């Protein structure tokens, strides 16, 4: 089952797909155009993997890491499907990152890899934008690269774990203005989902609705104001976002 969170009629609703429309939790059927899409889950801690596809690591002149390279993203960075992301005027390089987002379903501590999927509730799609200018001289994505407002579109759908037979074999695509720019497969992750859950839960507690952004494959290119960026993962969904400039935010 696919679930969304949307705002319409002055309230926030859970929604599912029914006959090409959105069915709200109160039973009303609405057109997709009538709603504002919200992140499909209200997240706890948001983890993000750096360089978790070897081809992307080589693309930006790094070696694939020997241990997961993980950073955190704040909830201020999130924006729903069909939202807008700000590209600051003074940056030279900003790129999208199509990523499988794994949603944790229950408290997890010291989980063994063979049990890891018991702690997953489902999946969604994220676009982990990077403002490349601020990257330091080794792979350390500081706050100015990854934690600006609106840098993490996520959604549209939360898809139940049981609906995805093999999350480690899903095709990923990014389209900029309709043109395919990035293509990969989750089977090429350096550290797979069970490894990441075992690793993170070995030194900290994971909680329901924590989210792990699992990294991006090769094919990240610069995007500019006005570009429409769609990141898509097979079986999970297509997440659309538009790049806007500083003037939209007035300041
Ligand atoms: Mg990323």
Can you give a write-up of this model?
Strand 19 and strand 20 form a beta hairpin. Strands 1, 2, 3, 4, 5, 6, 7, 11, 12, 15 and 18 form an eleven-stranded mixed sheet that branches. The model has no long low-confidence stretch (mean pLDDT 94). It is globular, with a radius of gyration of 17 Å. The N and C termini lie far apart (41 Å). By secondary structure, it is mainly beta. The protein is built from three helices and 20 strands. It has helices at residues 54-59, 143-146, 193-201; strands at residues 2-8, 11-18, 21-24, 29-30, 36-38, 46-50, 69-73, 78-79, 83-86, 94-95, 98-104, 120-127, 130-131, 152-153, 158-160, 171-176, 179-185, 211-213, 228-233, 237-244. The protein binds magnesium ion.
Low-confidence runs = none
Class of secondary structure makeup: mainly beta
End-to-end Cα distance, whole Å, is 41 Å
CA-atom Rg in angstroms = 17 Å
- Give the SSE order as H and E letters: EEEEEEHEEEEEEEHEEEEHEEE
Put simply, the count of helices is 3
Mean pLDDT: 94
Main CATH class of the largest domain: Alpha Beta
Number of domains: 2
Superfamily at the CATH H level of the largest domain? Fumarylacetoacetase-like, C-terminal domain
Question: What fraction strand?
Answer: 35-45%
The beta-strand count equals: 20
CATH architecture of the largest domain: Alpha-Beta Complex
Q: CATH fold name of the largest domain, please?
A: Fumarylacetoacetate hydrolase, domain 2
**Distinct small-molecule ligands in the complex:** magnesium ion
Residues in helices, as a percent range? under 10%
* Principal-axis shape: globular
């Amino acid at each position: 089952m696919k679930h969304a969170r949307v705002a319409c009629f002055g309230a926030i609703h859970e929604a599912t797909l029914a006959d090409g429309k959105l069915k709200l939790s109160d039973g009303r059927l609405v057109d997709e155009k009538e709603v504002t899409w919200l992140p499909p889950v209200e997240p706890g801690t948001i983890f993000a993997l750096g360089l978790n596809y070897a081809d992307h690591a080589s693309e930006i002149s790094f070696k694939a890491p020997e241990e997961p390279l993980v950073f955190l993203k704040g909830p201020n960075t999130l924006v729903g499907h069909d939202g807008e992301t700000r590209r600051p005027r003074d940056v030279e390089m900003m790129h999208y990152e199509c990523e499988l987002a794994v949603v944790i379903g229950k408290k997890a501590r010291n989980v063994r890899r063979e049990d890891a999927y018991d702690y997953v509730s489902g999946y969604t799609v994220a676009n982990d934008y990077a403002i490349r200018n601020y990257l330091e001289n080794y792979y350390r994505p500081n706050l100015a690269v990854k934690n600006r407002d609106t840098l993490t579109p996520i959604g549209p759908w939360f898809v139940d774990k049981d609906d995805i037979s093999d999350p480690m074999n899903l095709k990923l695509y990014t389209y900029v203005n309709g043109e395919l720019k990035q293509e990969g497969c989750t089977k090429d992750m350096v550290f797979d989902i069970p490894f990441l859950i075992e690793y993170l839960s070995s030194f900290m507690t994971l909680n329901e609705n924590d989210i792990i952004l699992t990294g991006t494959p090769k094919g990240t290119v610069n995007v500019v104001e006005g570009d429409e960026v769609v990141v898509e993962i097979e079986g999970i969904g297509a997440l659309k976002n538009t790049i806007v400039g500083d003037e939209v935010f007035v300041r």
